Amino acid sequence: MSVSELKERHVAASETVNNLRERLKQKRLLLLDTDVAGYARSQGRTPITFGPTDLVCCRTLQGHTGKVYSLDWTTERNRIVSASQDGRLIVWNALTSQKTHAIKLPCAWVMTCAFSPSGQSVACGGLDSVCSIFNLNSPTERDGNLPVAKMLSGHKGYVSCCQYVPDEDTHLITSSGDQTCVLWDISTGLRTSVFGGEFQSGHTADVLSVSISGSNSRMFVSGSCDATARLWDTRVASRAVRTFHGHEGDVNTVKFFPDGNRFGTGSDDGTCRLYDIRTGHQLQVYYQQHGDNEVPTVTSIAFSISGRLLFAGYSNGDCYVWDTLLAKVVLNLGSLQNSHEGRISCLGLSADGSALCTGSWDTNLKIWAFGGHRRVI
Amino acid sequence: MAVPPGGGSGVPSLPPPCPKSPPEYPDLYGKRRGMAKVQLLEREIGFLEEEVKSVQALQPASKCCKEPDPLIPTKHKKHRRSCRFWKWLCGLPCFSLSWICCCCHSQCSCQVKCPQCPRCSDCLKCPQCPRCFQCPKCPKCPKCPRCCDCNCDCGCHCNICSCKSCFSCPRVKCGWPQCCCSCACPSLPSCCCRKISCSWKCCSFRLPSCPDCSSCCRWGCSCPKCPKPKVRLCCSCKQLCCNPCCLFF
Fold first, then answer.
1. Secondary structure (3-state) at B127
2. With helix as H, strand as E and coil as C, how does B110-159 read?
């Protein structure tokens, strides 16, 4: 086949792909006869109400000297690891606000961090394209720094997000600017599977976020600058199980819903969305109209334990608490006393769901918990 | 050697240089890449056609919403203790919680023990030991605003405020006029913040609330760039070290 024939085939195939995508989009729109909020209203459900003292900032964790980019809670013991532009990971005891570790990183440009399920290790990654693992129980070196226990090398772009596979200290998944996600075997330091890539069916732009299902650890979702989220099965790396369209900008953050059948996304288009992994339906859009021309982007999201609340951090410092059922903002942590003074870059819920931690470009982390007698949900 | 025009000695002149074009190599790499991209697109067409067929069999969103409502609060029985702690914590009018020991009813689980728990007997990883720092009993130097250049070896791994010249025991009779950290009380645990349990009365000082970060700074900054031996340490203190690379706890 000549080069010109090849080019013609390429053009024809691209056109067919675009037509099929448009057909799919139209068919899905026809199936969206309602959304979660519309259905809930028709059932007479009432929104949750929050009083001014129901959720309060009970701790401010100060110590970073640069923007906080990422945080993660342990699965127990209420410890938090945070990563900052100052090139350090700090491990905090969230209950006492004490710092238990300050890890100076080999590469200061860190973007993500995660606690291992056992709480004994932390992982981080960033512009060095490497995911580094630190064992918190290791003795420090002569300069007082904690040594790197393992370096996971192989990505051809920055590491944007990392998460340990639930209940497995030896496996984690990373997302990268090289358009791939990778499942790593930490004990060998090797890649078990690569999801997407240049000649694989996958994301067509930088991947910014991953979330592994808590109910089925073989499933994870990824969000990308190609404005899609994709569902993957770790046993099938050759293609995504499903691709979720709808967003009109980079998908910065993805998080599985507690039941594992849905997941939420947050995007540069200023919306959060809820998708069903079984049908592919976009169940709900969470968007608050702004008077300004500039729409704040969604940087991070988390669900409450039941899923009734969706916490979303925004680039303008707001942190909305959404009633996921009725798609209403019930509280804005950014308007409360003692709130952050800058962009909310990351947030996460404690394992028992009783406290929310937010990280910000103002260099602080804050812990929010219920101040009243409201039943924790 | 130049040959004058029109003249010559009969030496034949060389033809002007005429370099040849490089041979045309087959662009195998580019063609193979192109073929791979086409195959990828054709594979994508297959996936999309499958999806179009499966979408035709899908139920509308309203039917999905009629499923048992997952957005129902569920009771979680795990971690009740920390859950109660967070709720109680937020009910306090003042978050100055220096007198709280979060886990003195049981063995301390955190790697660094409770900041104010005098019963925690092990002082681990002293450079990060918060207990010595926030211990309400730790004496504050009345004379020296900075304890961070203290060189007193109190036997504790924590470089807490134990400067010999920094504070003096108000009780002259205690025999330790300058450094209570040198308390030789046999019952004294290794960390001098536990002097509260010492039988030497002079050791029972209370740490007033820190009005100034520098008065509770414990460690001298070892950063060679830091012009002053002063660091930001206090977890709740807002003052910063002059040098951002100095970050100690």
1. helix
2. CCCCCCCCCCCCCCCCHHHCHHHHHCCCCCCCCCCCCCCCCCCCCCCCCC
Taking the Cβ of residue B60 and every Cβ of chain A, the question of whether any pair is shorter than 8 Å is answered with yes
Asked if the Cβ–Cβ distance from B82 to A350 is below 8 Å, we say yes
User: In chain B, pLDDT over 90 holds for what percent of residues?
Assistant: 4
- ipTM of the assembly? 0.77
**Contact assignment for A283 to B65 by CB distance below 8 Å:** yes
Tell me what pLDDT residue A163 has: 98
Alpha-carbon Rg for chain B, nearest whole angstrom, is 38
Classify residue B121 as left (phi > 0), alpha (psi -120 to 50) or beta.
Answer: alpha
Average pLDDT for residues B137-145, to the nearest whole number?
A: 41
CB of A206 within 8 Å of any CB in chain B? no
User: Mean pLDDT throughout B94-121?
Assistant: 31
Contact A371 B91 (CB under 8 A): yes
Q: What is the CA radius of gyration of chain A?
A: 21
Between residues A32 and B141, the one the model is more confident about: A32
Paired residues of A144 in beta bridges: none
Report CB contact under 8 Å: A16, B247. Answer: no
Question: Higher model confidence: residue B10 or residue B83?
Answer: B10
How far apart, in whole angstroms, are the C-alpha atoms of residue B31 and residue A175? 30
How many residues are given for chain B? 249
**A50 has a pLDDT exceeding 90:** no
DSSP-based three-state secondary structure for A56: strand
Chain B residues with CB under 8 Å of A108 CB are: none
Q: Cβ contacts (< 8 Å) between A103 and chain B: which residues?
A: none
pLDDT band at A291 (very low <50, low <70, confident <90, very high): confident
Establish if A351 touches chain B: CB-CB under 8 angstroms: yes
Distance of CA B241 to the CA centre of its chain: 16
Using CA atoms, how far apart are residues B50 and A201, in angstroms rounded to an integer? 15
CB A215 within 8 A of CB A260: yes
**pLDDT at position B28:** 64
Taking CA–CA distances from B60, the nearest residue in chain A reads: A31
Residue of chain A with shortest Cα separation from B132: A98
**Under an 8 A CB cutoff, do B238 and A62 touch?**
yes
- Section B25-35 average pLDDT: 74
The pLDDT value given to residue A134: 97
Inter-helix orientation angle A3-31/B28-56, to 10°: 20
Helices (H), B107-230: 130-134, 213-216
The pTM assigned to this predicted structure is 0.68
Residue B66 near chain A (CB below 8 Å)? yes
Q: Which are the contacts of B175, defined by CB distance < 8 A and separation ≥ 6?
A: none
Residues 6+ away with beta carbon under 8 Å from B75: none
CA distances from B100 to A54, A337, B114, B139, B142 (A): 23, 24, 9, 19, 26
